Write the C-alpha cells for this entry.
Amino acid sequence: MSLAREFARMAAYNRWMNTRLYAAAAPFGEAALQADRGAFFGSLFATLQHIWQADVIWLKRFADHPARFATLDPVRAMPHPYTVHVPTHATFAGLQAARASLDDVIEAFCAELRDAHFEEAITYANRAGDSYRKPFGALLLHCFNHQVHHRGQATTLLHQAGIDMGSTDLVSLVEDIHG
C-alpha cells in the first residue's frame, strides 16, 4: 500500500466533506452560524474557522519539510493565524471561499507527496515556544485526524439543528474491488 496514495485519498475526503458541510451550513445565515450553541468553540462558524486555522498552521509547518513542496507556496504567502482563538474571517462566505482555496492546496500538496517523504523529520514550535522534531508522516496523519474530529463536532451541531449530513465515512470514497 502506498502511503502517498492514501494521503491523496484523505485530501479528497477532506474536500468532499468540507464541500458537503459548508453547503449544509450555508442556509442558516450569518447570525445562526455564529450563535453560541454550547460547542467546544461555541458556534458552528467558530468550529469551521478553527479547522481552517489549524490546517494553515500545520501546512505552514509542512512547508518547512526538506522537500520544500512547491504546492505549499500559497500557504507560505498567507498570514500566520498565530492563535486559533482569534477570528481570521468575519463572514461565512469569506471562510467558505478560503476553505475551498485551502482544499485546492491540500489536494495539490498530497498529489506531490512520495512515500519517501513520510519518514523525514519536521521541526516546529508551538505557540508556547516548545520545539518538536517529529516524523512528517505522523504529523500529516494528525492533521487529517484533527479535521475529522472537529468536522464531527460540526456535523453534530448541524444534526442538532435538524440537518442530516448522511454518511460522513471515509469508506464512501473507497472503491469496491470486483473479481
